Fold each of these.
Amino acid sequence: MDGVNLNPEFSVTNEEALRALFEATHDLAIQKHQTALGRHAQEFIRRSPFLCIGTQDRNGKADVSPRGDPRGFVRILDERTLAIPDRPGNNRLDSLVNILANPSVGLMFVIPGFDDTLRVNGHATLTTDPDLLDSMSVNGRTPKIAIVVEVKGVFMHCAKAFRRSRLWDPEHFQDRAEMPSLIKIILDETTGAPLAEEEMRKRDDDLEKDYQATLY
C-alpha cells in the first residue's frame, strides 16, 4: 500500500496463521455450501431486484458491479444455470470484458428488508441468443447481451453484516444532500466542476434526463 508503512511483524501471510486467529468453522457453515440452486435459493433469486457481480481480469484485477431491475429479473434456466440481462450503463463494459478473460464470477443477491443474502459462485459466458434476450425485455426494450452463469457454489449469508450496518433501518438513513451530486464528484476529481451553481445544476438535470431516457 503506497504511503502506508505497516509493521511486517503483524502480517498474516499463510492460511495456517490466518485460521489460528479464529475458532473452527461450525458444521452448519460447512454444510450450507451447495452446488446447485435448491428451492429456497431459487425463491430468493425470484424475489431479488438487486445483485452485485464480482469479476476479475486475466491478471487478477478485481471489479464489483451492481445490477438491478424489477424483482425476478435474473432468469433461472435450471438448477445450475442463471441468466442476467445486461441493461444500458456507461459502456465501460468492465464486467463483460473481465468475463471474456476470466469466467469465474461471484454473485450477491439482496432483497430489500431481508437481512440475509444469497451468494452464488460460478462460471460465466456471454450470449446474444435472441430467444433468451426477448424473454428479458422491459418496456419493449431488449438487452443487447446476457450473462449466463453456470452455478458452482450456493450458500446463504447470515444477517450479521446487515444488522451491524442497520442498512434497512430508516432511523439510520443518511441525507444524500450532505454530499455533492454524482456529476460534481466526478468533475471535482477529474477536470474540475464549474464554479457557477446554475451550470452545475444544468449538468445534474441533464444526468437525470439521461437516466429517464436510457434506463432500458
Amino acid sequence: MAQAQTTQAQKAQAQTAQAQRSQRLPVDFYRSIQDGVRAALADAGLDAILADDASDVAYLTGFFHHPGERPVALLLGVDGTATLLLPELEREHAEWQNTAAELVSYPEFPGVRPPFEFLGEVAGRVGYAGSMSVARLAEVTAAFGKATLVRTDVVTRARLVKRPEEIALHAEAARITDLMLSAGRTLIADAIESGGQLPSEAELAGYVGSVGTRTMYAEHTDVVVVSPLAGGLVYAGANSAHPHGLPSGYRLRPGEVFMLSLGCAVGGRFVEGERTFILGEPTADQRRYYEAVREAQQTGTEALRPGVRCADVNRACLDVIRGQGLGGFLRHRQGHGIGLGMHEPPWLEDGDDTVLETGMIVSNEPGIYVPEHGGYRISDSMLLTEDGARPFTAYPRGLDDVIIPV
C-alpha cells in the first residue's frame, strides 16, 4: 500500500513538472536578437556596440543581474563576436543562465587594473547607449583608446517591437497580474463579510505581491528574478490622489476609493494592470470621475493602431477627460512602453512622434487625481496588432465591476 502511494505521488510530481513552464528563453533566441542588432549596427556604420544597461544586457544575452558599481557590459561586434565583461563573482551566475556570450571576468572593482581593459584592444567605431553614465563613459574612453565612441539608440529601437517568444511571456505575466487584482478584491470583500478590520495599504500590497510570487514559483521553473517580481502600489482615499504614492499604514475605509496598481514580470518581461475600486455605493462625483476615466481609456484603446503617432493617440485619449471639464485633474500622459522595463519607450505623450508598429507593447492608463478626495486610474498593457490593439490584462473595467458592497 505504501509503495502504491509513493508511486502515485511520483506520478503527481512528474505531471506537475510537465505542467510547469520555464521562464527562460533558449540561447538561439538571443543569438537571433544579436544578429538583428549586428545588421542594424552595420547599417549605422558601426563596428560594435558596448551595452552596459542591465536590461540591454538581458535583452541581448539572457543574463539577468542586479546592477551595481561593478561594470557588466556586452561588447557585440558586427564580426560575429559577443563578449560579456563581468566581475568574477558573477561568472557562475552567468554560466548557470546559459548566457549567450563569451565571458570575460575581472577580479574586483575598482581594481588595480581597470575592468574595461580586460576586453583587450578595441578599435573602430563603437556605439554606446545614452543611458551610460558620464563616469562609465570616461572609463570606457580611457580603456578604448583606439576606438571612436558614438552614441546610438540601436538597441533601444530593436527592443520596441517584441518577438513572439517575448509576447508569450508578457501574456503569462498578465494572467498573474489579473490573479493579483482578483485576490486583492477578494481580501477586501472577505474582511467586510466577516466584519473584520480592513487592511492597510501596506498590508494589501504585501498580500497581492505574495499571491503573484507564490503563483509564479508554483507554476514556473527557472524563475527570472527581477525587481519588482510581483506587486505594485496600493493607495486609498486622499492618498490615491498622488499618482506614484507609496503604500502606507493608512487603512481602507468605506465610502472611499482605493487603487491597485499592480504588475509582475515573467521571464523578465513586465505587464501592469491597474483598477480603481469603490468601497460602497458610489457618490455622484465618484461615478462621474470613474466613468470619465473609463471612457478615456476606451478611446485610448480605439486610437491605438499601427501607423499612428504616439502623440496623436495620447491627445485623443486625454481629450475625453478635458472635454468633460476635468482636465485640471490630469497629472500624466496616457501611457508608456513596457518590456524588460516597466517604463520604456515609446511614450504615449504629446512630445513623442514615434509611429506605432505591430508588436509594440504599451500601457493605456489615463487617470485623474482630485486633491483631498482620491485618484481614478484604469490601466491595461496593450499589444499592437495588425488592425488595432488588444489588452493583455482582462480584469473587468465597468463601474459595477469595481464597486465592493459594504
